[in-house]
TrEMBL record:
This is Peptidoglycan binding-like domain-containing protein. It comes from Slackia piriformis YIT 12062. InterPro entries: Peptidoglycan-bd-like (IPR002477), PGBD-like_sf (IPR036365), PGBDSf (IPR036366). It holds the Pfam family PG_binding_1. Residues 31-87 form the Peptidoglycan binding-like domain. It comes from the Bacteria. SUPFAM superfamilies: PGBD-like.
Length: 250
């Protein structure tokens, strides 16, 4: 039999939108629409909390603490004003986006200055890699409206010699052998690999060639992957690469 107290709490919880109240681990657990929104946001940003259940349990608290730590907040596990402010700023990065795997991201909020001081033009040559480039650009802009990381499709002026042209490719895509190519086979070393590739590209640019690197992402393992899975992978790869870029330049 469902406790009348819990049943009443469930009904009351549905009255709250994200940010309307403090959320934290307690007994009985907080439940409601705002908890679902919090879990959706955390999961889409790469901080898995055991699914979108609408119940603030231990998994959600753990994911929230990781998110807060990565965003430079006190990791107290309490969703309050500062946490909600960052989630609001990243709204376009998580709203209606698929859940991604948990990962120890450094946090885009810490890298806001990085995004506005390093000009990067992202482009792909097929649907999946173009989607990754577009997602990265959108995530960067959601983090910092002054971000200079843009997709080629939204670039309003021709790139100058200081802009890092970043070609997102798949394993079967060929690139110029003179272009430094990073393979995403070791996420723990990805930021260092990107930094090294950019250094090599800058040296080459001294001789007049474009400042350009290529980054190889795995993408869907099968051509028959459905659209939802393709979108999930593109979002995951975009978060992974944006985080690596921020770490490489910080």
């Amino acid at each position: 039999m469902i406790s009348p107290t819990i049943h009443r709490q469930d009904k009351e919880g549905n009255r709250f939108d994200l940010g309307d109240r403090l959320l934290y681990l307690r007994t009985p657990n907080f439940t409601g629409k705002d908890v679902e929104e919090l879990q959706t946001a955390l999961g889409a940003l790469g901080f898995a909390c055991g699914g979108v259940s609408g119940t603030f349990g231990a998994y959600t608290e753990g994911a929230l603490r990781k998110f807060q730590l990565n965003m430079g907040l006190e990791p107290d596990g309490i969703a309050g004003v500062n946490t909600y402010a960052i989630l609001k700023n990243l709204h376009n990065a998580w709203m209606d986006k698929p859940q991604v795997e948990d990962h120890a991201y450094m946090g885009f909020a810490r890298a806001a200055d990085v995004l506005e001081h390093h000009a990067v033009c992202l482009f792909g040559t097929e649907d999946f890699t173009r989607k990754v480039a577009s997602n990265m650009s959108n995530l960067a802009m959601a983090t910092n409206p002054r971000s200079k990381m843009v997709s080629a499709e939204t670039l309003l002026v021709p790139p100058d010699g200081h802009m890092i042209l970043t070609h997102i490719v798949r394993s079967n895509d060929e690139t110029d052998k003179a272009v430094p190519r990073v393979v995403c086979d070791d996420t723990s070393a990805l930021s260092r690999s990107i930094a090294a590739a950019v250094d090599v590209a800058r040296d080459k640019a001294l001789s007049g060639v474009p400042l350009r690197i290529a980054i190889e992402v795995p993408g869907p393992s099968s051509a028959e992957a459905d659209q939802a899975e393709t979108d999930r992978l593109a979002h995951h790869d975009a978060i992974m690469l944006l985080d690596a870029f921020c770490m490489a330049f910080s």
